[in-house]
Write a structure and sequence with these properties.
By secondary structure, this protein is of the alpha/beta class. It contains 15 helices and 22 strands. The chain has a seven-stranded mixed beta sheet with strand order 14-17-18-13-12-19-20, sandwiched between helices. Helix 2 packs antiparallel against helix 4 and helix 3 (92-103) packs antiparallel against helix 6. The longest helix is centred in the first third of the chain and has 23 residues, at 107-129. The N and C termini lie far apart (73 Å). The relative contact order is 0.14. Bound molecules: nicotinamide-adenine-dinucleotide (NAD) and 4-oxobutanoic acid.
Length: 491
Amino acid sequence: MVHSNFKLAEPSLLLTKGWINDEQVSAASGKTFDVIDPANGDVWTSAPAMDQVDTDKAIAAATEAFKSFSQVTARQRARMILKLDELVREHKEDLAQLLVMESGKALVEARAEVDYATTYSWLMAGEAERIQGEAIKANDNPSMRFFTQKVPIGPVALLCPWNFPLVIVLRKMATALAAGCTMVIKPSPETPTTTLALALLAQKAGVPKGVVNVVTASNETTPEVGKKLCEDKRIKKVSFTGSTAIGKLLMSLCAPSLKKMTLELGGNGGWVVFDDAELEKSADALMANKLRHAGQVCVCANRVFVQKGVFDKFAALVEERMRKLKFGHGLDHDSTNGPVTTERGAARAVTLVEDAVNNGGKLVMGGKRFGTGYLFEPTLVLGAGREAQVYREEMFAPIVSLYPFEDEDEVVELCNATDMGLSNYVWTQNISRAWRCFERLESGTVAINTANANTAESPFGGIKESGIGKEGGLHHGVDEFCVIKVAAMTV
Ligand SMILES: NC(=O)c1ccc[n+]([C@@H]2O[C@H](COP(=O)([O-])OP(=O)(O)OC[C@H]3O[C@@H](n4cnc5c(N)ncnc54)[C@H](O)[C@@H]3O)[C@@H](O)[C@H]2O)c1
Ligand SMILES: O=CCCC(=O)O
């Protein structure tokens, strides 16, 4: 059953077909798949289960469109992105409702995601106009000159996850448009509806036919669609956000054609609370960081390290805050948080808690599923051993797990003892220690006295096995969609 608060002001924003060459299309096979409301497990809409046959058509459309779109001026592209940005803002409430229904997150978070997404469309409209080259005079030859020009790399594949379907798709889409690339977008099977709505809004914004294509794939057809997009030589770049395991698989598929990739993958970040930290502020911030979208954020802190002298006090502050939360359907007015998005995510949360307790963790609250969908209680665990999965692996669940530590050297070593390197968080009032931690911690971002590791104009991306390349930032993100050509001449 569809939740009674689900009412779109513009019902045509809910599309149930794929989007190829500016047309709404069914899968060639005629197959469809169900889209589930994660809060109750009910089917609320469907999408075509497209496969490599449909993907081939989408690649052909993007390839044909690139011939003319690559010649569109930067100012024209900027205007299209600005119009898209305006339309997303205009339809904020509808997009937020679609986000709740497909991903499960609470409405307040969904609205924040729409706002956050438009920080990227706004930035990228400006970035389109800042793509310029350089004039270089040779250092050892008085008559040689070199000129560089950044040109769009070509048709690109955007493979997107289910946790932030609007911000991640709009971030990649607006960046590709800024650079002058055409695209085939594959949303995650759980969350096709906001991507399809964005394709419709891009059309309304004047983005030409064939520039934006959306191939909706089921969990069964996703591997063949992903393989086709990585292997097809007409696609010049793949931008993927998702798990490290799938990122590695896609990289192996891109290797034979040496396809350029941007990979935004998983994390296992530390949240480090030193004994001089503002504990109340850190506990408040931890709720926003760790329990946002039920803990399913790549930049969520995974391991909360608290210095021994303040461990009990901090644990009490965290528990007090967690007990005030109300996990429920994202469209219920009193829900502060929603469910996890998938059945596999909810099932895994159960085993993570069991395993943490088996490894010496003390379960203070939560630990169980409830309701008919994928709701999971906010869970607090203290002092699990370092063999526990909650310590070693990215949880992607609303489980807060606290570990005591002695001193700075120890905690830096603990934070860095992982293959991941996305974000770490440091809470201290000692500015020298904060700076030392920034320099010593192995992650793309080190956030100091804040829960926020990301903003559109700052480059975002992991190191180690958390990824390759950057998104957003001034020139960083858009450069990933360009190649540099050099002209050399004698004067
Ligand atoms: N970095 C992120 O923002 C992010 C987002 C979603 C999931 N994850 C990671 O994934 C884990 C669990 O999520 P999951 O169960 O969906 O994991 P998963 O590894 O099965 O899938 C991750 C994403 O990749 C897509 N995918 C899977 N196989 C693919 C293929 N062959 N080609 C193209 N796309 C493919 C999925 O549809 C999904 O969106 C989490 O614990 C987290 O580590 C990270
Ligand atoms: O999960 C990844 C996206 C989160 C973000 O952009 O802050």
